[in-house]
C-alpha cells in the first residue's frame, strides 16, 4: 500500500496573487504561503480554479509554483494543478512541477470540446508521463469542465500506477462513496465542495481541498478535528456557520475570489491584489458584504476555537 498520509487533511486551494498592475506578485505568493504554514494546514493546492489558472500563461503558473515551493520550505504538501487546454502546455507544467519536487500534480479534463473517455484518459496519461516520478490526482469538476469522471474512466486511469486518487468537486456526495468503494484503501478521495465538507468526510473522503478554506482555515481544521474525535454535533454546527459565511461572500456583485482576497486583507493584513479579467472585481457597494463576512469569520473563530 502507498503512503497517503501527507494528503490526509485540510488543503486550501491557493489564491492568485497580483501586484497593483495585475501581474503575478512573488511577494504576495510568499506571504500567502507563509500564512498557510502558520495556520497549520496540511498543504496547498496550487494553480487550480482558485488560482485563476485558466486566465494565466504557462510562464505565470511556473512563477507562482516556484514562489510557493521556495516559501513553503518543505513544510506543506504541495499539489500542483497543471492542466491547460492542450496536452503540450500541460506536459510542460507537469515536468516543471516535478523538477521543483511537488508532492503531486493534478488535472481537470480538457474543456470546451467534450472528448470521449479514451481521449480524456490519453490526455491525463500523457500529462502523467511528463512527470513520471510524481503522484497524479484526477480533478473531477463536471459543473465547470462539462464532463464527469465515470467509474469506468476511473478504473481505466487506475492502470496508471502514479494515479493516487480523485479531487472530487461534483455536487453529489455519493460520488465520493462510489470512487472510494471502487478504488479501495490504496487511493485517496478529496472532498471538493466546501459546503458539504463534513458530509464528504463522513462518507469516505480522507482529505479535503477547498477554495474558501483560505479565509477561515481554523474552522475547517476544527471540523476535521471534530470528525476524527466523533463530535459530529459540533462539526455540524461549525459547518452551518461556514456555509452562512460562504453564502454571504457569494452575495457580492464581484467575484467570490475578489471577496475572499479583500477579507484576507481585512482580517489577516494580507494584500494579494484583486482578480484577473474577465472575472469581475469588487463593486463599491461590495465592501459592506466583505466587512460582514469578515466579521462573521471572526465571531465564528471566537465561538468555536
Concise summary:
The protein is an alpha/beta fold and about 300 residues long. It has helices at about 25-40, 60-70, 85-100, 115-130, 140-145, 150-155, 175-185, 195-205, 215-230, 230-250, 255-270, 285-305, and strands at about 10, 45, 75-80, 105, 135-140, 165-170, 190, 205-210.
Explain how this protein is built.
With 305 residues, this protein is of the alpha/beta class. 48% of the residues lie in helices and 12% in strands. The chain has an 8-stranded parallel sheet with strand order 1-8-7-6-5-4-3-2. The relative contact order is 0.13.
User: What coarse outline follows from CA principal-axis ratios?
Assistant: globular
Radius of gyration: 18 Å
Helix content: 40-55%
Strand content: 5-15%
Count of DSSP strands: 8
Instruction: Figure out the total of helices.
Output: 12
H/E element sequence: EHEHEHEHEHHEHEHEHHHH
Largest sheet: 8 strands, parallel
Low-confidence segments: none
Distance between the termini: 36 Å
- Can you list the strand order of the major beta sheet? 1-8-7-6-5-4-3-2
What's the pLDDT, averaged over the residues?
97
Structural class: alpha/beta
Oligomeric category: single chain
Topology:
Blueprint: E1 10-12, H1 26-39, E2 43-46, H2 58-72, E3 77-81, H3 87-100, E4 104-107, H4 117-129, E5 135-140, H5 142-145, H6 151-157, E6 163-168, H7 174-183, E7 188-191, H8 197-203, E8 207-210, H9 217-229, H10 232-250, H11 256-268, H12 287-304
Parallel strand pairs: 1-8, 2-3, 3-4, 4-5, 5-6, 6-7, 7-8
Amino acid at each position: 500500500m502507498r503512503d497517503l498520509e501527507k494528503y490526509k487533511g485540510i488543503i486550501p486551494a491557493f489564491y492568485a496573487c497580483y501586484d497593483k498592475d495585475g501581474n503575478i506578485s512573488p511577494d504576495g505568493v510568499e506571504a500567502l504561503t507563509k500564512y498557510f504554514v502558520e495556520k497549520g494546514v496540511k498543504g496547498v493546492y496550487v494553480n487550480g480554479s482558485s488560482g485563476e489558472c485558466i486566465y494565466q500563461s504557462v510562464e505565470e503558473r511556473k512563477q507562482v509554483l516556484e514562489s510557493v515551493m521556495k516559501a513553503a520550505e518543505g513544510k506543506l504538501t504541495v499539489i500542483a494543478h497543471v492542466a491547460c487546454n492542450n496536452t503540450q502546455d500541460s506536459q510542460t507544467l507537469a515536468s516543471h512541477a516535478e523538477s521543483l519536487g511537488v508532492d503531486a500534480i493534478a488535472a481537470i479534463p480538457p474543456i470546451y470540446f467534450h472528448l470521449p473517455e479514451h481521449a480524456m484518459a490519453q490526455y491525463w496519461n500523457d500529462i502523467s508521463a511528463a512527470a513520471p516520478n510524481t503522484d497524479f490526482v484526477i480533478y473531477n469538476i463536471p459543473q465547470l469542465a462539462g464532463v464527469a469522471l465515470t467509474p469506468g474512466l476511473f478504473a481505466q486511469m487506475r492502470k496508471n500506477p502514479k494515479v493516487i486518487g480523485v479531487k472530487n468537486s461534483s455536487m453529489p456526495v455519493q460520488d465520493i462513496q462510489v470512487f472510494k468503494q471502487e478504488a479501495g484503501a490504496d487511493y485517496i478521495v478529496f472532498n471538493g465542495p466546501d459546503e458539504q465538507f463534513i458530509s464528504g468526510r463522513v462518507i469516505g473522503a480522507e482529505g479535503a481541498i477547498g477554495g474558501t478554506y483560505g479565509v477561515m482555515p481554523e474552522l475547517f481544521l476544527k471540523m476535521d478535528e471534530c470528525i476524527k474525535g466523533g463530535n459530529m454535533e459540533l462539526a455540524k454546527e461549525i459547518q452551518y456557520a461556514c456555509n452562512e459565511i460562504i453564502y454571504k461572500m457569494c452575495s457580492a456583485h464581484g467575484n467570490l475570489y475578489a471577496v475572499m482576497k479583500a477579507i484576507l486583507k481585512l482580517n489577516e493584513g494580507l494584500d494579494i491584489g484583486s482578480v484577473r479579467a474577465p472575472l469581475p472585481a469588487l463593486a463599491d457597494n461590495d465592501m459592506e458584504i466583505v466587512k460582514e463576512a469578515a466579521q462573521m469569520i471572526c465571531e465564528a473563530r471566537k465561538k468555536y476555537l
